[in-house]
């Protein structure tokens, strides 16, 4: 059972940011330190990617492990209250993510997903970025 009133829950949920999150800022700092320049949240591309490296035709999405249900991650939990509604929400998020990636591929772009938990470990982040920029 939810311990918060509907008004309190609404206030909490409205505080969840969609842009400039801590994991996204970590990825941006790392890219910049590695000498890459990029654009943010390009509205002309499907899904408004978090980070766009036009020179490499690469779009980077920094996904929250909870909201996008990172497989195998301890943060990818499903709340006990209104479980069915949450499962539907997560299903829709995954479906939208897949559609956006297909649309980008059809436009000749590559999409890379960096998970929130991966962004915390600098060596992981460097490896993921390097791998996606070489491909």
Describe this structure in words.
The structure is a single chain. The chain has 135 residues and is of the alpha+beta class. It has one domain: 3-Layer(aba) Sandwich (Endonuclease, Chain A), CATH 3.40.960. 43% of the residues lie in helices and 13% in strands. The protein is built from 4 helices and 4 strands. A 4-stranded mixed beta sheet has the order 1-2-3-4, with helices on both faces. The N and C termini lie far apart (47 Å). The relative contact order is 0.17. The mean pLDDT is 90.
List the uncertain runs: none
Given this structure, which CATH class is correct?
Answer: Alpha Beta
Q: How are strands sequenced across the largest beta sheet?
A: 1-2-3-4
Helical/strand content category: alpha+beta
CATH superfamily: VSR Endonuclease
Mean pLDDT, all residues: 90
Tell me about the biggest sheet?
Answer: 4 strands, mixed
Percent range of helical residues: 40-55%
Task: Report the β-strand fraction as a percent range.
Answer: 5-15%
Order of helices and strands: HHEEEHEH
Strand tally: 4
CATH architectural grouping: 3-Layer(aba) Sandwich
Question: Which key terms come to mind for this protein?
Answer:
135 residues, alpha+beta, Endonuclease, Chain A, 4-stranded mixed sheet
Quick rundown:
It contains 4 helices and 4 strands.
Give the topology:
Elements lengths: L5 H9 L7 H12 L5 E2 L10 E3 L4 E6 L19 H24 L3 E6 L6 H13 L1
Parallel strand pairs: 3-4
Antiparallel strand pairs: 1-2, 2-3
